[in-house]
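User: Okay, second chain of the day. Same drill as before: sequence in, C-alpha cells out.
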Amino acid sequence: MSEFAGKVAIVTGASRGIGRAIAVDLARAGASLAIVGRSRESLEATADAARAARPEAEVHIAPADVTDAAAVESAVAGTLERFGRIDCAVANAGQAVDGLIVRLKALELDAVLAVNLKSAFYLCTAVARPMMKQRGGSIVLVSSIVGLSGNVGQAAYAASKAGMLGLAKSVAKELGSRNVRVNAVAPGLIETSMTESMPEQARAHFLSAIPLGRSGRPEDVSGVVTFLCSDAARYVTGQTIVVDGGFLM
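Assistant: Same drill. C-alpha cells below.
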C-alpha cells in the first residue's frame, strides 16, 4: 500500500513549475489531489501529468484566484466535498516583480504580497478548521532563499517570502496541539518559467556560488515537500528547509 493511500492534498500554484512537480510527486506517492490555479487549461495539463505518474490518481481541478480569500475558501470547501478530508495543504502560488525599492510602485508591491503572502495566509485559514477537527495535517509554505538572505532589486519579493516564514512558525505554534504541522521550504535557483528571464550575468553569478554546480529542478523541491507532508516528518514543525544546492551554506 502506498504511503499516502487515503490521504488528500491540496496544492495552490499547481499550473506549472514547482507546483506541478509537487502535485505529480504527491500523486505518485498515492495521494488524491485538489489542484488550484488560475488557468483551467494548465491545471488540466497538471492533472494529466499526475495521472501519468499514477493512472488511478484522483484529481479535483479547482480554478481560482488565490488572492481572493473567498475563492480559496471555496476551493477548500470543494475539496472537502469531493474527498471528505484534507491531509496536506501546499501554498505554492508565487509571483516576482523585480525592481529597486526607489522605483517600485505601490501597486506592484500589493500584487506581490497578495499572490505570495496573502494567498498562503488564506490557505492556512481555510484548512485550519478541518485539519484541527480531524486532529492531524501538514501545511507546507513554499518560500525562497531570498526570504532568508534578501537580494538587490527584490525587496518586495523578499519581504513576501520572509513573511511566509513568520507565518509558518506562528501557525505551527497555534495548531501544534491538534497535531497539525506547518513548515516552509526555501528553494534557491530553480529552473522554472519564473527564472527563464533571468539575465545570463545574474545566472552565472548564482551558479558560481552553488557548491553542487548546477541550478535546481522543480523535482528537487517536490521531494522535500512530499517528505514534509508524510508521516516520516511527523515530529517536524515550524521549520524552514532550504533547497538551494548549498548556495546559502
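The CA atoms of residues 124 and 139 lie 7 Å apart.

User: Thanks, on to the next one.
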